[in-house]
Amino acid sequence: MAVSRARWREFPGSSDRAGHPAHPELIGDLVRPYGVPLRPDANGGHSYGEMLAGLIGDLVPPAQPADVLILGFAMPDVWPERATATFLSHVCPGSPLAFAVCDQGCAAGFTALRLARDYAASGGCRRVLVALAEQARLDYDPPAPASVPARHAAFAMLCDARPAPAPASAPAAGGPGKDGPPVLEAVRVLPGVAAGKVPAILRRVVADLPMTEPGKEKPGEEKRSLVLGEGLVPLVDGEVPGWRSRPLPPGQPLTGVWRELAAWAAVPGRGRLAIADYDPGLRYLCLAAFTCG
Q1: Who has the most CB within 10 Å: 56, 150, 156, 185?
Q2: Across residues 53-65, what is the average pLDDT?
Q3: How far apart are CA 260 and CA 109, in angstroms?
């Protein structure tokens, strides 16, 4: 599966919907049965529909409509009464089948990508749009620790069932005259991984990647970067053999690693990239690996 286009965008300020007077009342009704108090200082925020609608307009030309749209998020939306995946299907060329992945923390993006791969491999789907969003407003104190984003941000990528050259009017993620679009080599979502076992399991999963053949490449022939999400940074000490590790600072628990994918896809001579993250509350260890098309 090829990632033909990928974009990450930050959204400063707040959307009009974030100040809707009925919002605190609605959230209060949702959390009251669980004894979770509202935070009186909560304000601002962006609705995921508006954040992603613009990215979809950039990524999905009418002549190349999407067949499936998968929305992933971890933080609640500031417009909780709207079916955001359905709304995005309405604004996306092709009016694709759409659904959401939630309640998986930082694993939501990896699960969405795994589902996109499965749809692309089914033979009846040509293009899948994976859309991720996070906003920095949280209206209540969660019963379990939660990593709240520092900024409102969204990421989207258009995936093709097989690599194909993009027309001049719609350049691939690598841009005209650069490498072909990134190709997904592998995606892993491992549940039930205890924090103490993360380093060993991560090294084993990376070593088992189909594209990883240590010792067989010529010196300097491969450029391998391993992006470590903020959930992994406290647990992985030192380099993973065969890869140059790039730990991310905290602030974007869901979209941070995918921002690195979008940046990597936009430069020539990319080599290979793996992105990995860990959710300590849900104990999901995740990894996705890409190479040049």
Answers
A1: 156
A2: 94
A3: 13
